[in-house]
Task: structure prediction
Amino acid sequence: ARRQARRFYYRLLSGRVGVVLILVAAIAAAPGTFASLLDLHGDETEFLGFVAAMGAAEVFALLGYYVLSGTLAIGAANRVTLAQSILQPLFVLAAASLGLGLRGILSALVLGSVLRAVGWNAYALRALRSVPESDAELEKLGQTYSRVALSSVAGKAAGWIHSRQVASIVALSTSTRPDLAAFALGYDFVHQAGQFASTRTSGIVLP
Result:
């Protein structure tokens, strides 16, 4: 069972690596097209690199979260989320205080996403090592995963459409950059603070 779980995890990981590489290759091959879609001008095309980095971090982070959820180790996921909720605003404040500008702030956001991805996947591997070793293997695992994955994608897509990220992309062509930056920074701070305040103690102490 443990071997099958780890084998399946690495297959999913390799698939996500492929998706990220395709995304990066597409942006590198046609940066002008993506910049046009987001209404970016001049040196604003650097924004694409940060989008790709944060997108890649989220892709890998979700894999770790799903493993933790499936192995009933959600307490570990909550601890990582709590740590990120504290550290990411500190990174942003540090970047702003040091006068690093928009690049520094975006780098701080990327760093927060990367830390969450690393934390969730590190705990995920630890959870997989705790699966009892046996010769038993689940049958038709791929079919079961496909159905669950489709349902998950539909739910995630519905939530993402109503998220700040999509609103920010739409606002790129209708709002000034300072207004958009102020909105995004304020939204993230409020969201992180709310998430920190609403994290239940029971979720943190769960095994």
Notes: The chain has nine helices and no strands.
